[in-house]
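Q: What does the assembly look like in three dimensions?
Context provided by user:
Components: two
Sequences:
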Amino acid sequence: MSISESVLEYNLRNVVTKNRMKGLWRLMTGYHWHYFFAVVSLGISATAKTTTYLLIKYFVDDYLIKKDPIVSLPLIAAGFIFLAGIEGGFAFLSGKLAAQTSEGTTRRLRNYLFDQIQHLSFSYHDKVQTGELIQRCTSDVDAMRRFFADQAIGIGRVFILFFVNFGMLLTINVKLALISIIVVPFVLATSIWFFKRISKAYEAYQEQDAVVTTTLQENLSGVRVVKAFARQEYEMGKFEKQNWDKYLRGKKLNLMHSLFWPVTDIICGVQLLTGLLMGALFAINGTISVGSYLAYAGMVGWIIWPMRNLGRLIVQLSTGMVSFGRVKDIIKQHRENLDEGEFKIPTRINGEIHFENVGFKYSEGDVVLEDINFHVNPGQVIALLGSTGSGKTSLVNLLPRFYEYTSGKILIDNIELKDFPKRYLRSQIGIVEQEPFLFSRSIRENIIYGVDSEVDQKEIEAAAKAAAIHDVILNFPEGYKTLVGEKGVTLSGGQKQRVAIARTLLKNPKILILDDSTSSVDTETEAEIRTALKKLMENRTTFIIAHRIQSILNADLILVLDKGKIVQHGNHEQLMEQTGIYRDIYNIQTRIEQELEKEISHV
Amino acid sequence: MSDEYYEEEDFQTKFTGKTFTRILGLTKPHWKWVAGFLVSIAVVSILDSYFTFLSKRIIDEGIVPKNAEALTSILIVYGLLLLVQAVFAFCFIYLASVLGERIRYDLRKSLFNHLQKLSLSYYSRTPVGWIMSRVTSDTDRVSDLVTWGLLDVTWGIMNILTAMVFMLIISWKLALIVFITLPILFIVATQFRKRILTQFRMVRKLNSKITGSYNENITGVRVIKALGRERENLTEFGGLTRDMYKAGYRAAWLSALFLPTVQIISAIALGVVVWRGGLQANYGLITIGGIQAFISYVTFMLWPIQDIARVFAEMQHSMASAERIFSLTDSIPEVKDREAAYDPGTIFGDIEFDHVHFSYEDNIPVIDDLNLVVQKGETIALVGPTGGGKSTIVNLLCRFYEPKKGQIRINGEDYTKFSLHSIQSRIGIVLQTPHLFSGSIRENLRYGRLEATDSEIEEASKIAGAHEFIIKMEKGYDDQVGEGGNLLSVGQKQLISLARAVLAKPEIFIMDEATSSVDTLTESLIQKGMDTLMKRTTSFVIAHRLSTIKRANRILVIEDGKISEMGTHSELLKKGGKYYHLYTKQFRDQMAKEYDPFSDNIGVQTLPLAAD
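A: Here is the predicted structure of the complete assembly.
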């Protein structure tokens, strides 16, 4: 059975149902038959195993005792090999099919979650923690895999073994069969009782393990502090305490484990002995044949021993269910639709922008922006000035529709923003952030990250040159192929910014959003970044989130924001004529120079 | 994540007797435990084989001759032995697992304690993730080898040996047939195990890649959306999950094939036993019970073999783990006490750098012929470009490193004659990025001086200006700081680490000023705390703030491992050299920041300079 690619496309949103079983069933869509046959194969395999005991019965009764076999000895011997073949073959088939199901299901789940994450809105990502989300996508998904690969099928296996062997026992002797299962509820109860405690003890152990790891991590990353205060002894004591506590918890966990096996051994042993005694007595008084006794002695084990595992499987199953719930929480979030929008897409927008009474508030009701009005012609530069929380970042975030404005209208080329499909809209807008995010891949790949078509090296280098980063890249060990991040080179803030500029140049958007901060770079690179930015801004409508006055002197429109409202607007000359924050800021610059002069002449 | 990354770098090593002996040496202090579980497992495994033999006797002595008495007596023995076995089973599981836990504990302890002794140079060239993997996963693997590995092998060998003995007793001819299959089974099992293990490692490797992808997808989601990369990313990720599917499927497939294969091999042996046994039975050479016993032995033979095979397959990796652990414990600290190192009683005095040279492993000089005499109680400001050698000077002073050439003298004595502890316990240091340990604020402060009383702690925080904000916290001094102090702001962390240094009553004070700005109030509090501390210590400040620089008795401009300018603030400013340029740029930047009405500071603050 091969899986068609269409199975991968199944929309996992369907697994969000009230009924958990239904949800799990849908999660397996495309693999239902695989799973079904995995269980059937398991049944065949178990039956073959049990049949082996019947063959022993035949061998003993008809060949060894009556010495009057219908089937010849070599054939009986071959029968054993044949049955083992059936048993093994179907066990393998079952394992293979179950693996296909579990691996295939998790593969699809992983892909879906990945796509889900990149389609969830900014507001969702603002709320969730990265670590938490990663954990759900990795450990919880793996728990789902184990659910399908081990637990569900494991429980099926226990039951199949039970019913097949019990059924066969019934054909040998009903009384004997019934005696053999008296202990089953006890084994089951003990097993569940133990594994509940074991899993609790295990959690406690794991918790402490995490504490030990944290202690170690903090010690290693704070090694200078440890040494500076000469606190080695103290640290050893601290670690010793945590390490010892972990040992004690491990001891407790192990005690539970070491009790479980012998205790169930004894329970099962009592059952086994009673069964053997009864069976043997029946064999002596002729109720059953010697061969039947042998078959019985073999089969009874397959009823009792697997039951011991049931407790573990059931406890694990419940954690699998918890994981399913956690994964479902992500799946049920609504995706952004990137292609929705009535407007027929023009090949290129011009970049004229209107804000008309635009307002934006969070769903909780906090007002972020209010009554924003302005108009920009294509190619103009708009500078936004304001303190943290004044709403300047929120304002530019409305343009690519990272957040949806809640009142008023935003028009690009006189078309309402909401009519553009998001994918198209975002392709027309470029963003260079203050501390740009680069991906841990090669510099080349980072530069072409925003382009979905093939790009040749010349274009990349042209962009890099324009962004004044080409020479820097050539100095790296592997040039454009150099990896960025942990496993490669660490770029400085200014270098990252220039790579991001090159990335945006290649993307070639019509509207540009710049977070202009050069505070973290030295004077030399500052000039280079400025030149690069100037090149980038050519022929593009540009929004600058400004942090310093120099970068806004030439803006066509300056918006001074405070508490979500525009408090001043106009160009530099106009604003200088008004009393207000803008003029104050501008005057600071001259004041600083005066003070410096005073300072130096003072000494 | 870096954890998993280093995990996958590990390699396989050849079996070396030396490492193996050392691994076994780990169990030496607990030899009683080892002896205990080895004896227990031996008893359990002998009994296992004996039970099969008892089953044979039930048939041959009880059922076939129809002797109910013999039957009951055999079953009573059986029952009693089951109880005995249960007791021993408890012993071996308990002893082995607790011993495993104990060895993990021992290994971690000795690794941790050794790590405390290693020099800073070791930490600067070894990534934290690498060390973490050694202390966590490698210790797990080694302790598993000496407990469960040893146990499984012992159990397996005992089991096979006793089964062999019983088989020989029952019928030596049939026994020989079975023995032939043993090596075949063993080879097949080992080969399978090795391949399965390789597949699982592949799965783990891919898994850490997938985790990495998720991580980037989440942290970079804003850029991905802005650049519209959703489709390409999904395609790329799809490639990764496809590989994962293949590897995971192959691992499961191999595991699923393993047992049936081994079972079929032993079934062939079984078939031969039935065939030959059946013939022999005709001549009365073997009993029904005997044949039954053979069937059982052959059927269960594969378990010990597959256990032994597993241990052998994993052995190589465990050995590699052990070698890495030993390489860590064998590494020698580069900076350590000389023979006859002593405690001078105080290190408050003149400090002299006499023709000091220093370079890291790459031999590129970082400090080049540094000469400097610092008077007792002086405050020295170190300024200059990043990478110029400021931090190295401080690290040398703390004796985190020692000069490659030349001497550093404290009170006229070469400081390498002193014990490390005597120097470092008298130094107070505040780092650029303050490091706190998870725990309460009080615990973090007490780190400065362990025997400090609560009132001394409060006093120190008052001096450092930390008291104010601490008492405003919900639980005051008992408030938790979180992992690495992440529940506190940068400014608060700085204040606490300053208070910690104050509490230590240092004789030499070192401060690496933070470049990141804190609010003006915190800033002036830090300033005040530093002032108090500097009055009674010899101080070195890697300075970024103008006010700090101006307060120093002497300013050193460090460039390319040398002192390029030295003097007081006014002297250097008049000179109009490097310091002049540094200062004016710093001045403009700092003022721009302080005057900025949009910065997070509340209102425009008065210049700290004006307060002078």
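Follow-up: The longest strand of chain A covers residues 367-376.
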